[in-house]
Structure formats: C-alpha cells, structure tokens
Write a structure and sequence with these properties.
Blueprint: H1 2-8, H2 12-18, E1 42-45, E2 48-52, H3 59-65, H4 70-76, E3 89-93, E4 117-123, H5 130-133, H6 137-154, E5 159-165, H7 171-177, E6 185-187, H8 192-201, E7 208-211, E8 225-227, H9 232-246, E9 251-256, H10 261-275, E10 278-282, E11 292-295, E12 298-301, E13 304-309, H11 313-323, E14 331-336, H12 350-357, E15 362-365, H13 374-387, H14 393-408, E16 423-424, E17 429-430, E18 432-433, E19 441-443, E20 447-450
Amino acid sequence: MYTISKSYNVSTDDIYAENPFLQTSQLKDGMVISIPKKSGAVVIEENTINYVVQNGDSAYGILEKYNTNLDELLRLNPDLINGLKAGMTLRIPLQQNAKIIKYGQAGKLKRANDNEINLAILLPFDVQNNSQLKNSQAMQFFTGAKLALTHLTKQGKNINVKVIDSKNGLLQDILSTNDFSKTDAVIGPLNTSDVTEVANFFNNSNIAVISPYANDESLNSFNNLLISNPKEEVIADQIIDEIGKNFAGEQVYLLSGRDDVELANYTKKQLEKQLKANVVIVDNPSKIVQPHDKVNNEDYYTPIISVLVGDDETLGKQYLEKLKTFNKDNIKAYGIKAVSVYDVYNPENAKNIDAFREFGFVYSTARLINTRDAEVQNVLKDFKEIYCEFPTRYEQLGYDVTYDIVDRMNNKGDVTNNLSVENTRLASKFAYKKINGNKAYTNDASRIVRLPKK
C-alpha cells in the first residue's frame, strides 16, 4: 500500500476509500485496484472516511462508490437532510471489520511525554532465513539486549518493548506501518544506510534513535541520533595524547595490518602535526628498528616509540615478541585498539602482561571487560547460566547499549537530557556529546589501560 501510494502520489487513505474491499482484505498479487485521480479528498480517522464533497457529486454516487447505505450516511451526517453541497465534509462508515493500517510520515512524529518508558528495538533478523538466525549479528545483539532489559526490570524500571524485524529492503514500509506514536527511543538498525533511513524518519521528533554500531560521518546531520560506537579516531587520540605527554623527539613506528591502514594514516598525520615527530608506518614487526652502537664496550641505544595500530591478533603476538628483543629502557610502547595479549583481566595472560609491564605499556580500546569487578561478574554469570557461554562481541554491545540508554531515561522515557554523564557498562564506556557543531550525539569515551613498570 505504501509503495503504491508513493508511486502514484496519492495517500493510502485515498486508496482505501477508492477500494472499499481493501479495508477488510490485504493487498494480494493479481488484485486489480482503482487509483484515484487526485489525492487529499479523504482522510480516515475514528473509523470513518472524512470526504470533502466535490462539484458534481450525488448522494447515489457516494453510496455506490463507498459501498454504504443512506441510513448509515444520515446517522453520521444529520445535516445531510438539508441536501448535499460541494465543500461539506461527509463522514462515511468504513466496511464492517475494517482493518486500516495508518501509515506514519517522516518528520511528523512527536515523542509522547507520558509517564512510561517505551522502547523499540529495530534489527535485521531476517527470520525467513532461520538457519542463520542464531549466529547473526542482529540475534547476538538482541541476546545481550534481552539480558540488559531483565536486569533493568529487576532494578525497578518499567519498560514497554517492541521488537521489530527490519528485514532487508523493506525498511520504509516497516517504519510507515508500525505505530511509533508512544515510542521514546529506537535502538537500531546496524548498518549506515538503514540507520540513515531510520534517523531521517524520526528527525525532529524528540524520539531518540540509537545507532549501536554504525558511526559514519554522514550520520552527524541528524537530530536526536546517538552514535554509540566511538570512532576509531577517538581511540587513537587517547594514545596520541599519551605520546605527546612523554615525547622527546624519538623516531615513531606505527605497526599496522591491512585492515587498519586508514587509522594508521590518521595517527601518523596527527603525530606529525602535533609533535613534529618522524613517523614511519610498517606492516611487519621486523621493520621496527632500534639503532644500537657499542663504544668502549658500552651499549648505546637510540630511543624509539612503537605503536601497534589495530586488533590483528597475529600481529599482536608478533609485536610482543619483537618488543622483548629491545632495550626496555629506550623504548616507549603503545597500542591503539586491543588484542588478546593485552587483556589484563585474563588470568591465563599473566606472563604477557608481565612482559608488557617491562615497557610501561599503554593501550586504548573501545571495549574491555573487567572480570574482577563484582557487578561485571554477576552479568557474566547470568550470560553463562542462560546462554552457556561468554558473551560475544555483539552480545556485549547489545547488553551495553541497551542498558546504558534505558538506565539514562527518566520515568517519562526522556534520554536526551542525561547524555553527557560518563558511564562504564559491561565492556564499554559511554559519554555522549555534540562534537564540531554536529547535530548528532557521539560517544567519545574509550577505555585506556596503563601497565606501569614494576
């Protein structure tokens, strides 16, 4: 219905009125329907068709067209006894058992400032493909979100939740045919193009749209959009600042895999601009060189700075082994993003962490689970008891984003007045700000871990 209405530039109300049988039957392949010549003559509300009488209309023609009878028409329009006149508005009954889908319009919605928390979760489950549903990113995100909602309700939050499958390619129809009139916030979808469509639909409505993963620059122009996943530049800036505090003119090496070249280029540019540093990007730890001279049997090492940029696990292990070959007093070592060998909370990783401590290692990351924290331990325990596993990356994201957003809401469901406070959840840290004049709110918080020398 929505697609046809847009194709012919008429309203769906016009189509329902022009084809009374559609009021009780869904649109089906092979149906022949009539498209009105002009739009706007009718509005369907309160179970009636409000029709503006046109020149040339007759009572008989109206009864025939709208499949009703004179008694019903007179009951709803007592003034009709004085005759039919152009310009008057007639209330015409819908068909018995009519099921009218009222289509929303982008930019026309407003958040209801009631005493409820109403949340919509909009994810591409694609339930027709059940074989892949369990392991999909959407389902993993929803798994985490469900546990977050369970914890929040136990803490006294009264939340109404609507879960919607955004599917593939049908997003505009889905947005238009669902009732969002009492919605306070929408979490999802996941990719940039879908978030753009949803953000545009709810723009200026005071209904918050939360992008849990997509953080493209193109999203910055939407009001009430919350970008939860901090940009990689935010994570890099933490280490750029750390280097700046201790920089003494050293040669800087940035070790990066192919997936993180763009982030390495950003880091190089900022270090060269802010510190006038000599920065080289390398793709293999063997290319990190610490110059060494021997004078009168004394070893002299040229100080260097090394940074692993990215989360390539293989490169992370190689990086640690290379660091062990350097003179620890003449190297400053850092990491941007996280790999498993950095995990300070994994007891099986103790030897690696001890090795990193020798260099006073510092790294920044968007996600880190403090398994020593009592509250975190309780969350992880519930994940294991309910789902029999440690939460995946997307389950962590689903838990953190959902918990953080609902926890910030007041009892009226308003989240936008409580965004700047910095909160650390299961794995992520959140603090939302409008940056560089952008309309969207961006999470600019990340985790930084320092491993001081013993």
